Amino acid sequence: MGAAPLDPAVVQPENVILDVLRRARELPLEDLLAQLHTMGIQDDVIIKAAIWRLIAQCLVERTSERKLRLHAEGSTNGQ
User: Which of 40, 46, 68, 73 could form a disulfide with 9 if both were Cys (CB 3.0 to 4.6 A apart)?
Assistant: First the structure.
C-alpha cells in the first residue's frame, strides 16, 4: 500500500498552524476543533496529531525523570 498523497487542505502554512496552536490553550475545545475544521483539517488528522503530541510529552517526561534519577544516583554514589 503506497503513501496517500498530501491533501492541500491539510497542508497549511506553518505560521497559520503555529497561530492556532498558540491560541489553543485559550480556546474552548469546541472552538478549537471548529477552527481546525474551517482550515480544512480533518478529524483523523487532528486525532493523529493529538496522539503524537501525547507520545512526545510522555517521552519528554520519561527522559526528565530518568535524568533526575541518574543525577540523584550519581550524587549518592559520589558521596
Answer: 40
